[in-house]
Design brief:
Elements (H helix, E strand, L loop, with lengths): L1 H18 L6 H6 L3 H14 L8 H14 L5 H4 L2 H14 L1 H4 L7 H12 L4 H9 L3 H8 L5 H15 L2 H8 L2 H24 L9 H8 L5 H27 L5 H4 L2 H8 L12 H10 L2 H8 L2 H11 L6 H13 L1 H15 L7 E2 L2 E2 L1 H9 L3 H7 L3 H24 L2 H23 L3 H14 L5 H17 L3 H14 L7 H13 L3 H18 L9 H13 L4 H10 L7 H16 L14
Antiparallel strand pairs: 1-2
Helix pairs in contact: 3-6, 4-8, 6-8, 6-10, 8-11, 10-11, 11-15, 13-15, 13-33, 15-18, 17-18, 17-20, 18-19, 18-21, 20-21, 20-22, 21-22, 21-23, 22-25, 26-27, 27-28, 28-29, 28-30, 29-30, 30-31, 31-32, 32-34
């Protein structure tokens, strides 16, 4: 389609130069040297387009799309009536089916909604002008699915921008409950819809041609279509969540957003590698945690709390959001004792975390939240394991710290370092002899006497214990110790061996996303330390990434659902392999290299 458009554009431009008789020709107006004539010509074009039928409509819209994408802050077109023009074109496409299906008009609503979204992305004054020009009713029609999921994607993007400004939120809120209901429905179902309507079609010839053309723009074949469809489906979901965020942060329609079924759905919504810049589901959950009603709804679901807890002990970019959610829930007396028995078992592994990104004293904040009203808490908590863990935190962060501050001089600390090293060596010897349980005992003995200030020594001991737990087939204990080691590393989550060990432990528990994130971080860490000229991806890490990439594929669940109802063509295996190769390529492009090494030795 791209080459076809270029040919038509060149042909149209040549003809225009020779004998254009259209007084409202967009391309002629754009070439006009006189500024006032140029502006008048463009304004005339915007007025005439919705009421005239022309094969040039799609060419003009395509040009406007490109300009809006590259120059979204340029005030020229917004001041000349582009929003009114786009709104009328969308409405025409929705109301007049015969027009929509004629010529190449099927592309017009998509481009028009995209233009609105691009121009309202950064400038509140453009958003105000767009609302005054009547863009919301036609965008709502697209949001309702009057054409297809492709148009829904750009409509929800544009509405999200309009809802994000105080001056235009009220205009979107006129349709408040419908918008929220539609956005929650789209976020929950769009992945299945895109799979059923496009990616999962057994006969690819049945894919709508204009969808394929918009996805690839004439470049690439089936593989490119599949990659772009995955990216667009993820964006449709994430932009729907962004629209919901605009209402949730104002505590509007929380009864619709906080439905237990939808909260559980949110836990499975993440941007993945194709849309890694979006916090997706956890972003909305965190906003809900800032409201009392939101916290109450979230605390009622053990499934949601467990998912937040898993995120808090991961190397995901949004780990800090998971921690924030748990701290907000723990500080609220109405939700504290609904989640503390679960949260304590996870957050206990993070109490020695100094900083996470730009956030400092994270471990101290966690300790304060867990030990808040410690004596009263003990009488309200029934779970013995949670009580034992709270006592461990008290002993480590209060009693041991107090004792070391009073009694541990620099000289004594150095003597303790030597003693810890000797006991660790004994543990290493036991490990090499295959006596894993005895090695674990020695590493624990060394940890018990290791001063808190010896963070590197404590990191290694926790990591070694994690390896022992792995060999003893205890993934929960392995995750706990490797997480503690990663909290002690500098910067946080940078100790390669602990990342690999936790990745294996998460794999044993079937937590594919967490395992994948740790494995990618493990390889990235190795890349940064390698100076060789050849890339060597450790086979065990490559195999893990391949396995977890398949398990976390955006359409994995949708494919599984489809397979239960009908025989779906088994053609996505190559695509999963391609996604794995894509990850490897990204890593290699960093121009850093990996050498294979034994990452599973203590």
């Amino acid at each position: 389609m791209g080459s076809l458009k270029k040919e038509k554009l060149n042909s149209t431009s040549t003809t225009t130069e020779q004998s254009c008789t259209n007084p409202s020709c967009f391309f002629c107006a754009m070439k006009e040297q006189n500024l006032s004539l140029r502006r008048a010509g463009i304004a005339s074009c915007f007025k005439e387009m919705p009421i005239k039928d022309s094969q040039e409509h799609v060419l003009v819209l395509s040009s406007l799309w490109n300009i809006a994408m590259t120059q979204p802050d340029d005030p020229e077109f917004p001041s000349l009536g582009i929003f009114n023009c786009m709104a009328r074109l969308i409405q025409k496409g929705v109301n007049d089916r015969s027009w929509l299906l004629g010529d190449e008009n099927i592309y017009v609503p998509y481009y028009a909604a995209h233009v609105i979204g691009s121009y309202t992305m950064n400038k509140v004054e453009f958003a105000v002008r767009a609302v005054e020009s009547g863009v919301i009713p036609p965008l709502m029609e697209l949001l309702r699915g009057k054409i297809s999921w492709v148009e829904q994607r750009v409509a929800v993007r544009a509405l999200g921008h309009l809802a994000s400004y105080e001056r235009t939120f009220a205009a979107v809120a006129v349709h408040e409950r419908e918008v929220v209901k539609l956005a929650t429905e789209i976020a929950s179902t769009c992945i299945d819809v895109v799979f059923d309507k496009f990616v999962g079609l057994k006969d690819t010839a049945k894919r709508l041609k204009y969808h394929s053309n918009l996805l690839t723009r004439g470049v690439g074949g089936l593989d490119m279509e599949n990659r772009k469809a995955e990216e667009w489906a993820s964006q449709l979901q994430c932009w729907s969540l962004y629209l919901l965020n605009c209402f949730a942060c104002k505590e509007r329609c929380l009864d619709l957003i906080c439905r237990q079924e939808f909260l559980k759905d949110l836990c499975g919504m993440w941007g993945r590698l194709v849309n890694h810049s979006s916090p997706a589901g956890i972003g909305l959950i965190r906003i809900l945690c800032y409201s009392k009603n939101g916290r109450k709804s979230i605390a009622e679901s053990k499934e949601v709390i467990n998912n937040i807890c898993n995120l808090s002990r991961s190397s995901d970019d949004w780990q800090y959001m998971g921690i924030d959610c748990l701290l907000l829930l723990l500080k609220d007396q109405d939700t504290r004792y609904k989640i503390i028995e679960i949260a304590t078992l996870f957050l206990a592994d993070l109490v020695e975390l100094k900083s996470l990104g730009i956030r400092s004293n994270v471990g101290e904040a966690i300790t304060r939240a867990l030990l808040l009203d410690y004596k009263k808490s003990k009488s309200k908590i029934k779970n013995k394991k949670a009580l034992d863990v709270l006592q461990e935190i008290w002993d480590l962060k209060v009693e041991k710290r107090k004792l070391e501050k009073i009694m541990l001089s620099e000289e004594k600390a150095e003597k303790m370092r030597v003693l810890v090293g000797l006991i660790k060596q004994q543990g290493n010897q036991m490990f090499c002899l295959g006596d894993i349980e005895e090695a674990l005992v020695k590493y624990t003995e060394a940890l018990d006497i290791c001063p808190l200030r010896l963070r590197n020594e404590r990191m290694v001991l926790h990591s070694n214990r994690a390896q022992c737990h792995l060999l003893l087939r205890d993934p929960d204990a392995a995750i706990s110790d490797s997480t503690r080691a990663l909290c002690l590393s500098n910067p946080a989550n940078s100790h390669s061996k602990s990342l690999w060990r936790r990745s294996q432990a998460y794999d044993m528990k079937g937590l594919a996303k967490e395992s994948l994130m740790d494995c990618i971080m493990f390889i990235n860490g190795c890349i940064k330390t390698e100076t060789g000229k050849r890339v060597k991806i450790p086979y065990y890490a490559a195999r893990m990434i391949s396995k977890q990439t398949e398990a976390t594929w955006l359409f994995a669940s949708a494919k599984s659902k489809a397979s239960r109802n009908e025989a779906v063509q088994e053609s996505d295996g190559e695509y999963v392999l391609q996604k794995y190769e894509e990850i490897m390529k990204i890593m290699m492009e960093k121009k850093c290299f990996i050498s294979a090494f034994q990452a599973c030795q203590p």
